[in-house]
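Final report, results section. Input specification for complex C-07:
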Amino acid sequence: MSRDVPFDDNAICEECGAKGAYDFMGDCLCSECSSKYIEEECEETNEEFNERVVRQYGGATIRALLDIVKSLERRVEKLEDKI
Ligand SMILES: [Zn+2]
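Structure output:
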């Protein structure tokens, strides 16, 4: 989140009606609702990230990475047996 979002003590949250809200370019959200909003945005960003990675590197690279992760997993499982 940008740190220069102004907080207005007298603004009313559009989501829950609480007094005191951040002004997101005209959309007023209290700190609780804005954190929910930001979490949703993060999920969206993850999906965008996935799409970008697939576009950028292609499925073959991602499958190769998955193979590496799986082989690491197997190694760690073997280590666990020894602990
Ligand atoms: Zn709220």
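The two ends are 43 Å apart (CA to CA). Strands lie at 7-12, 19-24, 27-29. This concludes the modelling results for the funded period.
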